[in-house]
Specification:
This protein is of the alpha+beta class. The protein has 7 helices and 13 strands.
């Protein structure tokens, strides 16, 4: 049986080693309840667990079996969808785009099954945009505008690198519950999650048009004035790139 263990850094490896979780076997056999019950798709299954470490911090452990996606390099058997997500997380990190903090990717393959694990740090100081809007139905105008501008800036940075999220919903845009700068949000307070479908777009314009159409159709809590402010802030950030 072929086993592959990937760590994004030695610090990540050391942290998991301290908790006896630095490898495929201990993570696969970890006894923990499902945070999201496994779903059966693509001929296999995939599920997510939240695990509290001994130091009080939390991680998400995503496990899957025979849950594959086809790529140009692997058009027949495909690759685990978590491997594509792991690589996309690293790609966003290279471009300083807010996303999850990866700690581990591993997979195990034999003649019958292909199992994979992705471990990320829990975003406990964040909530989804939909959740934020529900918890703050009438925020101070400057607070709301700074949040919208921060999200617009993060989206523009994504699209300036010709990256298309492809599933840009309000539930996949996370924002810090309390911004680093009191009373005002900045781009560093925004995180993109659910990156299994992220890919290079044909052009920056098409990547942006696709994602922003999805964001508008699948986000709760913004009115027309909010969307007008978002569009103006996004265009301003994109225009800066072309100067």
């Amino acid at each position: 049986m072929n086993v592959r263990d990937l760590f994004p850094s030695e610090a990540a490896r050391s942290e998991l080693q301290r908790h006896q979780l630095a490898g495929f076997d201990p993570l696969w056999s970890l006894a923990t309840d499902w945070h999201e019950a496994p779903n059966a798709r693509r001929g296999g299954w995939s599920g997510v667990s939240r695990h509290l470490l001994a130091d009080g911090s939390a991680i998400f452990v995503k496990r899957q079996e025979d849950h594959l996606c086809r790529t140009l390099r692997h058009p027949l058997r495909g690759i685990p969808t978590f491997y594509r997500e792991y690589r996309n997380i690293l790609r966003l990190q290279r471009y300083a785009i807010g996303t999850l903090e990866p700690l581990y990717f591993g997979d195990r393959r034999d003649t019958e099954h292909w199992q994979a694990i992705l471990v990320t740090r829990a975003l406990d100081d964040f909530s989804s945009l939909d959740e934020w809007n529900m918890a703050n139905p009438q925020p101070a105008p400057h607070h709301r505008e700074s949040l919208i501008a921060a999200i617009a800036s993060a989206c523009a940075r994504l699209h300036r690198h010709r990256l298309q999220h492809s599933c840009l919903y309000g539930k996949h845009v996370f924002v810090r519950r309390s911004p680093n700068r009191p009373g005002a949000y900045e781009e560093g307070d925004v995180r993109f999650i659910d990156l299994e479908k992220l890919r290079p777009g044909i052009t920056r314009a098409r990547a942006g048009a696709h994602d922003l159409d999805q964001l508008r159709r699948h986000t709760n809590g913004w009115n027309d004035a909010d969307w007008q402010f978002f569009t103006a802030a996004y265009r301003q950030q994109m225009a800066r790139f072309h100067r």
